[in-house]
Amino acid sequence: SFFFPLSLSCSLYLPPFFFLHLSSLIFLSSSSSSSYLRLSVEPVMILWKSLSCFSFVFGLLLYSASFVSAGDIVHHDDSLPQRPGCNNNFVLVKVPTRVNGTESMEFVGVGARFGPTLESKEKHATLIKLAIADPPDCCTTPKNKLTGEVILVHRGKCSFTAKTKIAEAAGASAILIINNSTDLFKMVCEKGENVLDITIPVVMLPVDAGRSLETVVKTSTVTLQLYSPKRPAVDVAEVFLWLMAVGTILCASYWSAWTVKEEAIEQDKLLKDGSDELLQLSTTSSRGVVEVTVISAILFVVVASCFLIMLYKLMSFWFIEVLVVLFCIGGVEGLQTCLVALLSCFRCFRRFGESYVKVPFLGAVSYLTLAVCPFCLAFAVLWAVKRQYSFAWIGQDILGISLIITVLQIVRVPNLKVGFVLLSCAFMYDIFWVFVSKWWFRESVMIVVARGDRSGEDGIPMLLKIPRMFDPWGGYSIIGFGDIILPGLLVTFALRYDWLANKRLKSGYFLGTMSAYGLGLLITYIALNLMDGHGQPALLYIVPFILGTLFVLGHKRGDLKTLWTTGEPERPCPHVRLQPQAS
Q1: Mind giving me the DSSP string for 391-433?
Q2: Within-domain flag for 284
Q3: 395, 540: one domain
Q4: Do residue 216 and residue 341 come from a single domain?
Q5: Quick check: 206 and 92 in contact, CB under 8 A?
């Protein structure tokens, strides 16, 4: 039962025993900064590393769309009837209350299709006294005398427009309708009804909010405001999230290119000396990465869709807890790998990264890895325990970025052909599960899974997020792992090619593809704001920019055939040491 999902996940890249291979490579990268270490993998370590890879594959398969998790505040619904006087958008409404003059709870409701529009700013919203309808459903004239109060009524059996007209005729200035469930119902006009004479706002509240107000208003004086604030055109969270995504790919690209450059220099040295170690070096280097193939790129869509449907059907609190554990395992591996590589750059830590001790069940492990591992484990556990706190997004982003950088260092696209197939499949996958899936499932499967609907949690953890700081509705701007990893594979490929070909920054392909990614992600957020926060498939905008840039530049510079087939420039004389020219 454990290895079945692992074997299913293996088909993402399809080499035999992919998880065992990738797990070993993660361990290899985290043990030292050197790429030429002897690999020692014990069975217990295989299980641990496979779990970490499994958590990564979940993130890669599930998330290739960008969303604002606060939810849509404007709902455009063309399926419900519209006519003059009954053509409002369904907007979320804030209902802050005061009890005996003291600020109390704030509720959220939804406006009706009819009636006047509400104020967008709290300072312009009038503070009005609340009264309970008698009879409660307000389907007949209220017995209590109203002098401009907001009347609180039950849903009842009469139409929304009918009870609104009755409440307005009785002297109410607004009407709050308590739904009979915790959901918010879209209030529309009945056929043949005249709604042009309705001049008071209508708001529906969920049943729990309505009962709370009923209980308080019986013993205290309750006043409230009704307003529907608009989201800002641009929130600073989106700027920081853009910088985070671009910076992650930038770091991973230079790490990957530096590793390839060291391998090329080492090979040239051995060729120059005529050493017999060249064959051994080539074998070791080939085990240092996992290359995506055309077949595995095509099957990506099928496997990813299966995982997404599984999460959609099994979404619950316990399933989220399982994903949190898997994310923590992958996060520990990624954070450990990045910290060990970073610390190994300093001379005082380098000797600890090159000294090994044999640990039972784990094999040979560097002293630096042993020192860093407890910190990484404690960090992940602390995040898991405190993940409901407002500051937990910081720990989630640190673990996620570390995992993404590690994967982009290990997994490689060998040429433009494989990159084209992979991103094209991901492009179609993104569009289908964000937009087209609404026709079959009556809701966007990707958005439902990303937000963690029906799970009681704020979405699953395989994503990067930042709180929307100046948004009156709060929430988070989020981006999935797939929006960074999949385009990042092609961006890192471009930089590796540039360094091997000794191209300058302006004459190479990295600057173009990196700029294309940044521009595509920027347009994603522009579309996100233009569509009132509705979830957008980021790859819809990113993929055409990246592929188009590579094809145009490759054709213009005469390198397209080489990029498409071999993915590496012709190697110069082995006696010439490869060095990237200064940009």
Answers
A1: THHHHHHHHHHHHHHHHHHHEE--SHHHHHHHHHHHHHHHHII
A2: no
A3: yes
A4: no
A5: no
d(C-alpha 365, C-alpha 370), whole Å: 7
Q: Cα–Cα distances in Å, from 213 out to 181, 239, 475, 544?
A: 15, 39, 25, 52
Q: How many CA atoms lie within 13 A of 495 on its CB side?
A: 25
Q: Which domain holds residue 352?
A: 15-33+233-259+290-566
Output DSSP code: residue 133: -
Catalytically active residues, by annotation: 430, 483
| CA–CA gap between residue 149 and residue 132 (Å, rounded) | 10
My answer on whether 112 and 137 are in the same domain is yes
SS3 label, residue 4: helix
Domain assignment present for 60: no
**Rounded distance between C-alpha atoms, residue 554 and residue 287, angstroms:** 29
pLDDT tens-digit profile, the chain (583 residues): 222 222 223 333 333 333 333 433 333 343 333 333 333 334 444 444 544 454 455 545 444 444 433 344 444 444 555 677 788 888 889 999 999 999 999 999 999 989 998 998 888 899 999 999 999 999 999 988 888 999 999 988 888 989 999 999 999 999 999 998 887 888 888 777 777 889 999 999 999 999 999 999 989 999 999 999 987 877 888 899 999 999 999 999 999 999 888 887 777 776 666 555 545 545 444 446 788 899 988 887 888 888 888 888 877 777 788 888 989 998 998 999 999 989 988 888 888 877 878 877 767 788 888 899 999 999 999 999 999 888 999 999 999 999 999 999 888 999 999 999 999 999 998 888 888 888 888 888 887 877 766 655 666 788 899 998 888 888 888 888 889 999 999 999 999 999 988 899 889 999 999 999 999 999 988 888 777 656 678 889 999 999 999 999 999 999 999 999 998 887 665 555 445 555 4
Single pTM value for the model: 0.78
CATH number for the domain that contains residue 150: 3.50.30.30
